[in-house]
Design goal:
This protein is mostly helical. It is 84% helix and 0% strand. The protein has three helices and no strands. It has helices at residues 2-10, 14-39, 43-68. It is flat and about 45 Å long. The termini are far apart.
Length: 73
């Protein structure tokens, strides 16, 4: 996660930063799921699901913005 954060902050291009953000939220999802399995609590799975949905929408919006420089059609 630290390497993804480094690439997010220092990425030479916008595409590198978007991929680093995507990797960072996927790692956060994996960490939450493992922590939830360790504690046997379902709240962490729900938090991972929310992060997954927000991460997908964020990646799609950022990619669309990079391509068209406009979010709303």
């Amino acid at each position: 996660m630290l390497l993804s954060l480094w690439r997010l902050l220092r990425g030479p291009t916008v595409a590198d930063r978007i991929l680093a953000l995507d990797t960072l939220y996927i790692n956060a999802i994996a960490a939450l799921i493992l922590f939830g399995m360790h504690l046997r609590s379902s709240i962490y799975f729900e938090a991972a699901l929310v992060i997954a949905m927000l991460g997908f929408v964020g990646t799609a919006v950022l990619s669309k913005y990079v391509l068209r420089r406009d979010i709303v059609e």
